[in-house]
Structures are given as C-alpha cells and as structure tokens.
Amino acid sequence: MAALDTTRATTGSFGLVGRIGATFASVVNAVVEWNDARVTRNTLSGLTDRELDDIGLCRGDIDVVAEGRR
C-alpha cells in the first residue's frame, strides 16, 4: 500500500529551476516597471505648465508620479 504525504504545500516552484524562473520573472518585472516610469516621465515632461496645472501637478511632481510614489 502506498502512502501519500498530504502535509506539504503543493503550490509554488521547487528546486533550482524554480529559483531561476523566479529570478527571471523578477528581472522582467523590474524592466517593465522601469519602462513604465520612463514612458510616464517622458509624457508628463512633454506637457506645458498649464496642462500640468490642469491635472494638479507641477514640474517637481513628475519624478514622484513616474516612480509611483504618489
């Protein structure tokens, strides 16, 4: 008769391959976040001061908004 251990978690990645996959996913995520911030910063920088004021921002807020801290 075979025994089945049901106390272990069966979700998530296992072993070296799982760690490599998780590292790759985190690198891809970091690149995507960097690109989103870059696009946001460039778009907001292209607006006039009046347009920024219309959406409640000033030039000093661009980096804060682009990094998602606001």
From TrEMBL:
Pfam families, per database record: YjiS-like
Highest taxon of the lineage: Bacteria
Sequence ranges assigned to domain YjiS-like in this UniProt record: 29-63
Protein name as annotated: YjiS-like domain-containing protein
Lineage: Bacteria, Pseudomonadati, Pseudomonadota, Alphaproteobacteria, Rhodobacterales
